[in-house]
Amino acid sequence: MNNRILATLIFSSVTVAALAQQKGDPKATEYYTPVPKVVSPGNALHAPSDAVILFDGKSLDEWVIAKDAKTPADWIVADNVITVNKKSGDIQTKKTFTDFQLHIEYRIPVNITGEGQARGNSGVFLASLTQGAGGYELQVLDNYNNTTYVNGQAGSIYKQNPPLVNACRPPGEWQSYDVVWTAPRFNEDGSLKSAARVTAIHNGVLVQNNFELKGDTPYIGQPSYQKHGPAPIKLQAHGDKSEPISYRNIWLREL
Ligand code: MG
């Protein structure tokens, strides 16, 4: 058999196989219910229609002091923006959440000073816990032109996983995190049933791709899990001496 005949035979058999696959009823693999709920997708100024608004530019009504959940948050609200009040400490949401999609924007001040971890340090705790390291921190830091340990730079799950890339914008510009969080699940006896997972997009760029957390995010020592249920979201007032950063446009969709 010459090559041309062989090629024709192979082509014919591939064509027959492809045609055979197309036989049958296409409707057998289509379904129509349940119909996905209609959500108005929002834009840069408006959250999607089914979002829980955590900061609308006007008030901190949805937030309390993390150390004392009975005390209203007293970070500074002006010009539709929240600025960290380092003296008052971390703040957290009144509401608690399990799995969600979170949007949050932050701005490092244009006149930021300091270096390493002491340059615009804050953080988004995807669950605020009273135990252990206090939760699971997605790091906020100015790493536009500032190096530190890579598993502690902006976009890292603190001390666990560096960001896939450094997508920082320069100080003075607004930056965003869009996060998909799957909370850990626990067995009755407190043992871990399934680890937390996070996907995070920094300024439109993927930095955490369905990363499985090893536990909470301590400054010193190894991560660990302790049983918990729905938890608030917490923003960090880091104790470094650099100028305080700002947040705006915070919303989430429960999943
Ligand atoms: Mg931090």
Describe the structure concisely.
This protein is mainly beta and 255 residues long. The chain has one domain: Jelly Rolls.
Question: Any key phrases for this structure?
Answer:
255 residues; mainly beta; Jelly Rolls; eight-stranded antiparallel β-sheet; six-stranded antiparallel β-sheet; 1 helix; 32% strand; globular; binds magnesium ion
Describe the overall structure:
The chain contains 1 helix and 16 strands. With 255 residues, it is mainly beta. The chain has one domain: Exo-inulinase, domain 1 (Jelly Rolls, Sandwich), CATH 2.60.120. A hairpin with a 2-residue loop joins strand 2 and strand 3. It is globular and about 70 Å long. The site of magnesium ion has 8 residues, from strand 8 and strand 9.
Instruction: Count every beta strand, where a strand is a DSSP E run of 2 or more residues.
Output: 16
Parts with pLDDT < 50 across at least 5 consecutive residues = none
The CATH architecture category equals Sandwich
Could you estimate the helical fraction of the residues in percent?
Answer: under 10%
Report the major sheet.
8 strands, antiparallel
User: Which cofactors or ions or other ligands sit in this model?
Assistant: magnesium ion
Which structural category fits the helices and strands? Answer: mainly beta
Which superfamily, in CATH terms, is the homologous superfamily?
Exo-inulinase, domain 1
Mean pLDDT: 93
Query: What would CATH call the class?
Result: Mainly Beta
Our measurement of the CA-to-CA distance between the termini, rounded to an integer number of angstroms, reads 61 Å
- Count of DSSP-assigned helices: 1
In percent, how much strand structure appears in the residues? Answer: 25-35%
